[in-house]
Amino acid sequence: MHFTHTARFAALGVATVLTLSACGSSNNASSPSGSSTANISCVSGSIKASGSTAQKNAIGEWINAYQKACTGATIDYQANGSGAGITDFTNKQTSFAGSDSALKAENRPAADARCAPGTAIDIPMVGGAITMAYNVQGLSSLTLTPKVIAQIFNNKITKWNDKAIADLNAGATLPDQTIASFHRSDSSGTTDNFSKYLKATAAADWPYETGKDWPASGGQGSKGNDGVTASLTSTPNSIGYIELSFAQDAKLSTAKVDNGGGAVEATSQNAANTIAAATITGTASDLALKLDYTITKPDAYPIVLVTYEITCTKGLPADQAALTKSFLTYTAGESAQAILIDLGYVPVTGLVSTKVKEAVANLA
Amino acid sequence: MTTHGDLVARGSRAASTSSGESLGDRVFRGLTLSAGLFMVTIMGAIAVFLVWRAVPALNNNSGSFFTTTSWLPDQTPPIFGIAALLFGTLMTAGLALLLAVPVGVAVALYVSHYATPRIGKSLGFVVDLLAAVPSIIFGLWGLAVLMPNTGGLFKWLNDYLGFIPILQNTTGIYTKSMLLAGVVLAIMILPTVSSVSREVLVQTPRMDVEAALAVGATKWETMRMVVLPFGRPGIISAAILGLGRALGETIAVAIILSALFEINWRITEPGGNTFAANIALKWNEAGTNGIPALVASGLVLFLITLAVNMVARLIVQRRRTKEGTR
């Protein structure tokens, strides 16, 4: 074949670009400092897991750390959503499922059948804080109560300098602008937990059922935590609810929440205090938690969520059971939970953490 | 009198009944037949799947499927309906067609009859390139570039043309609206409409065009009397192809629209949702009743597309028999 000079140069250029781009390494997960993996008792094998997108980053970090320490192990986590994760687990496609909420009563029989002779249990592993992130120029500090939050997202409070907000923030200059509120247009566990919080603390102003879909009219919806974050950063005078890690990465200001015991800032530690005070409603090894959204302790941030790993007490095939137990033992341990803070998640601490370690130790 | 058709029929009959039909011919005929049957089977399988998976949800709905606007299939009791989705889908697709078809046909006319050959070729090439851009890129561009910059235009529409109810805006927010989604969809379907129209308009018989010019028609009158009527079936097919793409566009709409389940005729206000975007947004977290509900909405979309395509075929068929050609 006979190519002209131009064609030859063009082909060479394209080939060079393609080769160089293939050589570039993509290092998009920032590894936190001080992750000690000395306490892992390694098991070889390969397991699959899937589920919640909220805990995707945390599980990803943990899998990296575990596989680095244990070269014979392969763990594959697909973040395709809590609903899809539970379906995969019940259909024996995965060894454990990540879910934003504990197994519902209607899903439990099928999951238990999958785990025969054992049962399916929920193990809380990753916590998160839902922050009220806002983008108002000149407003560096903002305090809100549940009632005011409900009225903002319900479109009853429409201006930033409304009396209700001004009363809580004496001394702050609130602009005379319409509040642009953002919610999630897709189904999400974040919406589910936020609506549970509002229902528990401000039922009079939030007359909707709780659920993964946004129930109120008005406001604007964006897809995913990242979509809401992008909308907040590009829209002045906006407010929305996003997870702590997203607010930290985008450097958005977050409001302090006052449940009645004082204004509490949205930090990992404050959120961990709320999760540690949760009551366990599951029976036997099942650790489904009931979070106390009305908590009034001065250092407990009340708008939190917990994601669970759903697995079998016994009944997993032998080649999956040992690796699943070893991985979950690692994730429940101190060093793994400490990694969560760096990533903007919330560790499971206190009495709940003790119960988690017990439940994992009893896995067969 | 034997017509050309008779001769062809006789010849093919002879070829098929004589033992002289080669193995290669038979194999090829079998292959093409099975390819055709395969397509029909796939369509049938899709239709059966949609109906079968959708039925449990339809039985388990405490609201009317066609008139309820909210979408809460996993609540107890479940209540969901496609009224808002149907409105949103038809509105965004309709806006896209309204904006894209005139521009697409104009581009096709320019390239085929007004431009010099060289300019025509390069312009046509660039427009065809637009069709190769993945649709999510349009969505991201619409979100990042169009949305912050069209607020002023939509506000102008409200201020000066606000007496038209559809262009009013009572919320003061001009982003994430159905008009914006319609604009992005229009840009997405423009290459399809323009390239198919161009293919058709280029085939206008030169004799008819020259005859019109010879009796003293201006260029525009020639277009209006000869070229456009000749190309009308093709332009309708182009519009239907574009409509099909607009009806099914998923991710671009999902990231632009605000996903509110209500029927809002004011197209510059935030809100709206379409079938495809709804499925994309809700699928992952849908529960045991949510998934059949989404499949039911997919079935409705499937039926709408079938209906639109059948109407288009009817229109094209009738025009062909009326003109008595082809």
Describe the fold and architecture.
The complex is a heterodimer of chains A (364) and B (326). Chain A has helices spanning 5-23, 56-69, 82-90, 108-114, 146-153, 163-168, 189-201, 224-234, 244-250, 268-276, 318-332, 334-343, 350-361, and strands spanning 45-51, 73-78, 96-99, 120-135, 143-144, 180-184, 220-222, 238-243, 253-254, 256-258, 263-264, 279-280, 289-290, 304-312. Chain A starts with a helix and ends with a helix. Chain A has 13 helices and 14 strands. In chain A, strands 1, 2, 3, 4, 6, 7, 8, 9 and 14 form a 9-stranded mixed sheet that branches. The longest helix of chain A is centred in the N-terminal third of the chain and has 19 residues, at 5-23. Chain A is of the alpha/beta class. By secondary structure, chain B is an all-alpha fold. Chain B has 2 domains: 4-59; 72-325, Orthogonal Bundle (MetI-like fold), CATH 1.10.3720.10. Helices cover 73% and strands 1% of the residues of chain B. Chain B has 11 helices and 2 strands, in the order H-H-E-E-H-H-H-H-H-H-H-H-H. In chain B, strands 1-2 form a two-stranded antiparallel sheet. The model of chain B has no long low-confidence stretch (mean pLDDT 86).
Q: Structural class of the secondary elements of chain A? A: alpha/beta
Low-confidence stretches of chain B: none
Helix and strand run of chain B: HHEEHHHHHHHHH
Q: What is the H/E string of chain A?
A: HEHEHEHEEHHEHEHEHEEEHEEEHHH
| Structural shape of chain A | globular
Highest CATH level, the class of the largest domain in chain B: Mainly Alpha
Helix content of chain B: over 70%
Which secondary-structure class do the elements of chain B indicate? Answer: mainly alpha
The residue-averaged pLDDT of chain B reads 86
Walk me through the topology.
The complex is a heterodimer of chains A (364) and B (326).
Chain A: H1 5-23, E1 45-51, H2 56-69, E2 73-78, H3 82-90, E3 96-99, H4 108-114, E4 120-135, E5 143-144, H5 146-153, H6 163-168, E6 180-184, H7 189-201, E7 220-222, H8 224-234, E8 238-243, H9 244-250, E9 253-254, E10 256-258, E11 263-264, H10 268-276, E12 279-280, E13 289-290, E14 304-312, H11 318-332, H12 334-343, H13 350-361
Parallel strand pairs in A: 1-2, 1-3, 5-10, 6-7, 6-8
Antiparallel strand pairs in A: 3-14, 4-8, 4-9, 4-14, 10-11, 12-13
Chain B: H1 4-17, H2 23-59, E1 71-72, E2 79-80, H3 83-114, H4 117-132, H5 135-161, H6 178-201, H7 206-214, H8 219-248, H9 251-256, H10 275-282, H11 290-323
